[in-house]
Automatic annotation (TrEMBL):
Keywords: Hydrolase. GO terms for molecular function: hydrolase activity. It comes from the Bacteria. InterPro entries: AB_hydrolase_fold, Hydrolase_4. This is Alpha/beta hydrolase. Residues 60-203 form the Serine aminopeptidase S33 domain. The keyword Protein transport does not apply. Signal peptide: none annotated.
Amino acid sequence: MNHQPPVWTFLPGLHGSSELFAGVQAMVPSGVDSEWVELPSAGDQHYAQLSQWLDEHLASGRPRLLIAESFSAPIALRLAASRPEEICGIVLAAGFCDAPVNPGIALLPLRPLFMVKPPKAALRHYLIGDDAGEEQVSALRSVIKKLPSSTLADRVRTVLELQERDNPGIPEIPMMLLQAQSDNLVPWEAQQRLEACYPHAHVHWIESPHLILQRHPKQCMQHIRDFAESISQAPETTALT
């Protein structure tokens, strides 16, 4: 049994960058070790390959709490399935277990769509909320534009190809879902499918657009702290040995 405190590992959304985690970073409790993953901006962007990349780049042998945003939810689930002895908990923020929108979109030529600067109105509507400040929208736009259009298109196609059967079953590992109640990107039906796929998960619905960790870092971090504390106080199980 490893009695070390877990490291909190944050996995980013579709943009693949830790830059948008500034608000969350400031609220990580004192004394908690945290790490902020940057997904590779080149190479194969399918979930199987990204999960393998993460497994190869994360140190092993220490308990770990995975906190995955949106796009990274399937990556966190795969890592937990491959490292059940060290993953002590999973938090999925605005996550999904299958394609949240019509998979037929994958047949479109996606790359040209991402070669233009994303309209602020679209970013507000689908990601950060209509009431988001200009600074938040500009920061989001800047992070997205740093990513090659080909990589962004590949990641979107990866999401659209995702099927529920691709996600591993991990009932032994504690899980929490942070669901965005006003999510215009991941519809209510997709969020319900995620809950049905992992019925043992604790669920918290927050009045928020899709980027729930960016818009409500204080509320989300309070839930994460409470979840981490509940894990530390729980009786030992085979998932933690």
